[in-house]
Design goal:
The chain is an alpha/beta fold. It is built from eleven helices and eight strands. The protein has an eight-stranded mixed sheet, with helices on both faces. The longest helix has 13 residues.
């Protein structure tokens, strides 16, 4: 089963997803022999790659998220079995507390020290729960919330919308596994997969940098402490932007990153939805129009564009 024949729909809602601009990223990267994504999230850009994949390495500091992708890659049927559950408030709150407890049971340490470790039950319950949960806080604190009771999101969307081709949940997870078969999934600090051994030693490398928004822009949205990561990522991008073996895309809000003049940029409008539930205020609505991608000098097609 090949995801290239489908319109990719992420299995869970994710703040700041980039499916709308994935095609533009690949126009600028081209069919690079190597692809690296240090902040993987829902993975829309990689999944919507229009070429046959070559070497690909992804990472996320969120252990639940990284575990989901590892487990889906290696054992999609078991993940699907644990994720296939109707929306149920009692289950949601009980699983929320159980998942939080796994942090003190060594789950995070195993994810960060053993690249082959994964847990299908944690993966299935996590993805089911994040699709039921409203706003932020999933697997982060002991707060209680009424589950999402609308049309459903992620894996809880009414079939056949999961894959737009009438896929059941088992087939859908199998299709994700096929695409992930050769993808290396790391869990930890974003810089760990940006050394020469992971990037330019494999040839021309497309590096998609979608760091968490700065804390002063979007506070309390992420399950891990983001600190000044956005600033650190900008610094790394500028330091490496003139390397002819690197094609770098950096995402953020329009005023968040001040980049050199030889970088091109694209403005685009994010869809409404999950971010509105996370921050239901005027600023959230305005931020939809501030999304920007900066492209390094060695990316293809350097014209300035806008997707408004």
């Amino acid at each position: 089963m090949n995801l290239k024949t489908q319109i990719y729909k992420p299995p869970f809602p994710w703040f700041g997803g980039k499916s709308k601009v994935a095609h533009l990223v690949w126009e600028r990267f081209g069919d690079v022999p190597n692809y690296v994504e240090p902040f993987f999230g829902s993975g829309a850009v990689m999944f919507l790659r229009p070429h046959e994949p070559n070497t690909e390495t992804v990472n996320d500091a969120d252990c639940y998220l990284a575990n989901f992708w590892r487990a889906t890659k290696e054992n999609p049927s078991e993940v699907a079995k644990h994720a296939d559950n109707p929306v149920n408030e009692a289950d949601l709150l009980a699983r929320h507390k159980w998942l939080i407890a796994q942090q003190s049971n060594g789950f995070s340490d195993k994810m960060k020290t053993d690249p082959d470790f994964y847990d299908v039950k944690i993966a299935g319950w996590w993805v089911w729960g994040i699709c039921c949960w409203i706003g932020d806080g999933w697997c982060r604190n002991e707060s209680n919330k009424l589950p999402h009771l609308g049309r459903g999101r992620g894996i809880n969307r009414k079939l056949p919308h999961l894959g737009d081709q009438g896929l059941g949940i088992q087939d859908y997870f199998e299709s994700l596994s096929v695409r992930l078969r050769r993808v290396r999934v790391a869990c930890g600090d974003w810089t760990r997969i940006l050394g020469d051994s992971v990037t330019i030693n494999h040839g021309v490398t497309g590096i998609f940098l979608d760091p968490p928004y700065s804390a002063d822009e979007c506070d309390n949205l992420y399950s891990v402490n983001t600190g000044d990561i956005a600033k650190e990522v900008r610094r790394w991008a500028i330091e490496n932007g003139n390397n002819p073996l690197m094609r770098i895309a950096l995402c953020g809000y329009d005023t968040e990153h001040e980049m050199p003049d030889n970088w091109s940029k694209v403005f685009w409008k994010r869809k409404g939805g999950y971010e509105g539930q996370a921050k239901n205020d005027t600023k959230a609505k305005q931020d939809r129009f501030r999304e920007t991608i900066w492209f390094s000098p060695h990316c293809l097609n350097k014209k300035q564009q806008s997707l408004f």
